[in-house]
């Protein structure tokens, strides 16, 4: 399903034929928007057995992924970098959206890019916020849809189907970080979760 970057020949990054979008500035703004969004206050008498069918997880599955995600949070930078390097390795057209790639000749060099680390932080913050907020369906759906809309208004000619290209790199990076803790049960839950996140981003883009 995936690849091991360190086991392959360093890959040359193609030169960009068109002027790239300044993604750091865009995602800095998006991250600030996420931080400013306030979760609704917890209702003390909320009935936990009532599920929102827009989120394809049971109460137990939500509990399990939040617990599992703590292992990712402790290694969130490395997980995010591995995710993006796999994404770039497989998708030239995605790489060309990121202005900071221009000065790096190989994937190995790109791993050391401070700009990549900054972008990874922004994206992983969004995923972290979504996973840890699954009990607040209105908040997490509104948050993800807002980010999807931002891609439509701020990224010219962005194809929302490109969101799907992060699915496999995300799952591979999570598997690598969790190791033996990435059981078949957790694999299924992470699959359901990342698909929910990406579908909601695309919904937001289409609503924008």
TrEMBL record:
Ranges for the Globin domain? Answer: 56-206
User: Known Pfam families for this protein?
Assistant: Globin
Q: Which UniProt keywords apply?
A: Heme, Iron, Metal-binding, Oxygen transport, Transport
Family affiliation: Belongs to the globin family.
What protein am I looking at?
A: Globin domain-containing protein
């Amino acid at each position: 399903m995936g690849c091991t970057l360190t086991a392959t020949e360093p890959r040359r990054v193609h030169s960009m034929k068109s002027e790239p979008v300044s993604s750091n500035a865009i995602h800095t703004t998006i991250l600030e928007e996420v931080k400013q969004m306030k979760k609704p206050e917890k209702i003390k008498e909320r009935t936990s057995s009532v599920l929102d069918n827009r989120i394809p997880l049971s109460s137990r599955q939500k509990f399990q992924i939040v617990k599992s995600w703590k292992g990712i949070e402790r290694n969130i930078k490395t997980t995010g970098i591995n995710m993006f390097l796999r994404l770039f390795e497989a998708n030239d057209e995605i790489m060309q959206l990121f202005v900071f790639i221009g000065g790096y000749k190989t994937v190995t060099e790109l791993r050391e890019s401070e700009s990549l680390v900054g972008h990874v932080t922004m994206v992983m913050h969004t995923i972290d916020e979504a996973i840890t907020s699954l009990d607040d369906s209105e908040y997490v759906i509104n948050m993800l849809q807002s980010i999807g809309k931002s891609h439509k208004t701020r990224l010219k000619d962005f194809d929302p189907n490109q969101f799907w290209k992060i699915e496999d790199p995300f799952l591979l990076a999570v598997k690598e970080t969790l190791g033996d803790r990435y059981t078949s049960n957790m694999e299924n839950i992470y699959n359901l979760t990342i698909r929910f996140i990406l579908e909601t981003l695309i919904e937001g883009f289409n609503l924008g």
